[in-house]
Write a structure and sequence with these properties.
With 200 residues, the protein is an alpha/beta fold. It has a single domain (3-194), classed as 3-Layer(aba) Sandwich (Rossmann fold). It has helices at 3-12, 17-25, 57-67, 84-93, 104-113, 151-155; strands at residues 46-49, 52-54, 75-78, 97-100, 120-123, 137-142, 157-167, 173-181, 184-194. The radius of gyration is 15 Å and the shape is globular.
Length: 200
């Protein structure tokens, strides 16, 4: 599958023009190991080292849709990995995007991958604690699976903001969009049938 075919496949699945445009503007092959570049536009997850993966494009498109991203929003990604999702988000919001990656090697690699983006900052630290110094955020995306949303992340989200995360046991999760209403998370939408790497 090439980039055009992937975009066509995502379009047929009903994703918005906004999401499709972000995929068309970002080269996935820049974010994966050289030996896997021939698979860059297949709709599959790929290993990026240290037991981590770059998610399947369909899964990423679903997460971006659930986030309901708008121009100018401040976004935090937990488990930003190689930086690909980050780059897509920045193309939609055109605003400051912050990422936390606990694996130092991946955090450094993503900084290299994203050096041409001036609206992205990557931090190598524990994602469960969030990034209080830049909060509050309009949107938070968690790109690793856990059994619940860490409380510190909830406190760093604006009221009426949205968190999207895979929630559930290690063998399978639901992708859930939560909206923060009066300081509490309320489930907005839940889609079962996903498997993410575990939250470290």
């Amino acid at each position: 599958m090439n980039k055009t075919q992937l975009l066509q496949s995502l379009k047929q699945k009903g994703f918005s023009k906004k999401v499709l445009d972000s995929f068309s503007k970002v080269s996935r092959e820049k974010f994966i190991p050289a030996k896997l570049k021939k698979h860059a536009y297949e709709d599959i997850a790929l290993p990026i080292g240290r037991g981590q993966t770059i998610s399947q494009p369909y899964t990423i498109a679903m997460m971006l849709s659930l986030l309901e991203l708008k121009n100018g929003q401040k976004v935090l990604e937990i488990g930003s990995g190689c930086g690909y999702v980050f780059a897509l988000i920045s193309k939609i919001t055109k605003a400051k995007v912050f990422g936390i990656e606990i694996v130092r090697e991946l955090a450094e690699k993503s900084k290299e991958n994203l050096k041409e983006y001036n609206n992205i900052e990557v931090y190598n630290r524990d994602g469960s604690k969030g990034l209080a110094e830049e909060s509050p955020y309009d949107r938070i995306i968690i790109s690793a699976a856990g059994k619940e949303i860490p409380k510190k992340l909830v406190s760093q989200l604006k009221n009426n903001g949205i968190i999207v995360a895979p929630v559930g046991p290690r063998d399978g999760q639901s992708l859930i969009a939560f909206k923060k209403i009066k300081d509490k998370l309320v489930i907005k939408k839940e889609i079962p049938g996903f498997v993410f790497v575990p939250f470290i």
